[in-house]
Amino acid sequence: MTASVRVRFAPSPTGALHVGGARTAIYNWAFARRTGGTFILRIDDTDPNRSTAENTAQIIRSLRWLGLDWDEGPEVGGPFGPYFQTQRADFYRAALEQLKAAGRVYPCFCPAVELQAKRALAQVQGGTRGYDRTCRRLDPTVVASRLAAGEPHAWRLAVPEDQEDIVVQDAIRGETAFPASAMDDYVLVRADGTPTYNFATVVDDSEMHITHVIRGDDHLSNTPRQILVYEALGRPVPVFAHLPMIWGPDGRKLSKRHGATSVEAFREEGYLPEALLNYLALLGWSLDGETTIVLAETLKSQFSLDRIAKSPAVFDHEKLLWMNGYYIRGLEPSELAERMLPFLEREGLTAARQYETHPQWFVALATLVAERIRRLSEAAQWVGFLFTEQVTMDPLAADTVLARPGTRKVLDQVKQTLATLEEWTSAEIERSLRALPETVGLKPRLFFQIVRVAVTGSTVSLPLFESLAMLDRRVVLARLEAALAYAKG
Ligand code: GLU
Asked: Which residues, judged by CB distance below 6 Å to any ligand atom, belong to the binding site of ligand 1?
């Protein structure tokens, strides 16, 4: 019987959750769901200077927003906790004791400055950059007395003298061999008692019975070092799967210079979580090489490691925008209305209408906007004129459209017609206005452009008749009146 899959996402809370980390989390989660395994969230908060509780909270918020859930970890607990590395010192201590007893580690008393000087010299002379094993050669009685005297010391892994080259079997990349000569006796526990990343990670992954380590390939060079720690501890080595990097369009590692990179920033820009999830899932993985719309449900039932690409994926903002627009159009109008709301509020657009008292009005609004936006944040620019008494007039539109001869006549006619209309619906408004252009001898396009600018303040707007119906008649009439001021003839 094979043990059931246990995977983890182990972010360091030294900043926000970025798309690269989010993709790693999605793949781990999807793999666990697909295999009926367990998805664990562990917070690698060992860097005391850069780890903060706010970052942890933000990472958790971003993961939840994307729709990911974990079976063990912060907020949910689990049998192999605690799930914060800073709370796991006992495990690291016990593992170190085990390695000491087995003679697989040795204390290193070399002061940091001395190590630095040696490294600098090695760099100049082209020698080995790693540790020269000075303390490994110390006489045991000397070691014992220096320890007894309380001399500061780190603990280094005693890499076996006959160590062979280490071959990493990666589920995505295949085999990569690392020369044994590159494995100096690296530090597992620092002089201040804290574990290094390569030690803490192995202890935790092994205590938590992780079966597959799925992470970014920036960690590939750590993997042989971690394998040696597993072997020293006599614990089973998990399967490794290193994900290819994410690049910007210029072929360089994705970073801020390419635009938003944190999940929170995408949320604030008005991306839907299901769109970002879909986009990131396909950034280095494919269902069949063709399908572009992949829902969480599909990932949960279809995700597999063997369809992960070997080469870097390029982050394409345009494609993500397209996908977001697709998901926006697919939302129920009532759902879109609710999701748009915070973005309208952010622009101060709720004063006149309240969602609570006019839900249908907002649903109608969402229906009109859905086809025109690719991000929720774009809604405000389309609907602003529906939330104010007076309209903000685009001077160019006023100049090019309202200043033409004939405008006054148009505005007067429309005003009269609308003032006496029995029913204030878009169908009635349209029916009554359609007949007018001919009577004033104007082309319909020009005629309605005048009305559009007068009422919306712009030459580009939501559909005119629907827009008029969404405004109070009183407001429409006042705007038509106010627009007379721009009319020249
Ligand atoms: N805390 C590490 C990181 O964020 C985890 C790497 C790993 O998955 O082992 O890079």
From this structure: 10-12, 44, 201, 215, 219
- Nearest-atom number in ligand 1 for the CA of 24 is 8
pLDDT beyond 60 at 1 = no
Which of 66, 87, 67, 84 is closest to 75 using CA atoms?
A: 84
Q: Give the catalytic positions in this structure.
A: 256
**Most confident stretch, 250-264, 298-312, 354-368:** 298-312
Q: What percent helix, strand, coil does the chain show, rounded to 5?
A: 50, 10, 35
* Ligand 1 centre distance from Cα of residue 483 (Å): 61
Which tens digits make up the pLDDT trace of 298-355? 999 999 999 999 999 999 999 999 999 999 999 999 999 999 999 999 998 875 567 7
What tokens were used for 235? 């614990």
Domains of the chain, earliest start first: 6-73+246-317 (3.40.50.620), 88-243 (3.40.50.620), 331-384 (1.10.8), 395-488 (1.10.10.350)
Query: Which residues have C-beta within 8 Å of that of residue 171, sequence separation ≥ 6?
Result: 212, 239, 240, 241, 305, 306
Query: How many angstroms is it from 75 CA to the middle of ligand 1?
Result: 20
* Gap between the Cα atoms of 206 and 223, Å rounded: 14
The closest-lying atom of ligand 1 relative to the alpha carbon of residue 44 is 1
Q: How far is the CA of 86 from the centre of ligand 1 (A)?
A: 15
Q: Are 86 and 53 in contact (CB under 8 A)?
A: no
Question: 371-422, pLDDT tens digit by residue?
Answer: 999 999 999 999 999 998 899 999 999 999 999 888 999 999 999 999 999 9
